Amino acid sequence: MFIELIATVFAGVACAGIAMLINIIFGRRLPKWVMPIAAGAGMIGMTISNEYTWYDRTTEKLPEGIEIATVIDEQSWLRPWTQVWPYTKRFNAVDTGTMRTNESLPDQRLVDLYFFGRWSPVNQAPMLLDCATAKSAMLIDGVEFADDGSVSNADWQSMDEADPILKLACET
Question: Which superkingdom is the protein from (predicted)?
Answer without folding.
Answer: Bacteria
